[in-house]
Hints:
Strand content: over 45%
Mean pLDDT: 96
Low-confidence stretches: none
Number of helices: 0
CATH class: Mainly Beta
Helix content: under 10%
Shape: globular
CATH topology: Rieske Iron-sulfur Protein
Number of strands: 11
Order of helices and strands: EEEEEEEEEEE
Structural class: mainly beta
Amino acid sequence: MSEVKTWEIICDASELEANLGVRALIQNQQVAVFRVQGKLYAIDNVDPFSNASVLSRGIVGDLNGQVVVASPIYKQHFNLENGQCLEDESVKLKVFPVKEEAGQIQVGVA
């Protein structure tokens, strides 16, 4: 990840429900943000296999000890920590720094 220059507020922390994604537009980039088991994750929202902005609507879970989101289109799994596709090692999503501060969810922008 690149160095964070600014933090963009995307929603109140109360709006980010556990295991459900939220989509945000940050500097013309769609980002999917999740809270899974109390930890925050932010990845590119665009499914690279369908080119559709749908990953925020994917199903989160644990696959082989990795916290993942499954694309609602073709069902590929993406590791929420590092963006790696589990079914195709040549595909990796961009990941973003994310934090909760003062009751708000914020995504870091380089």
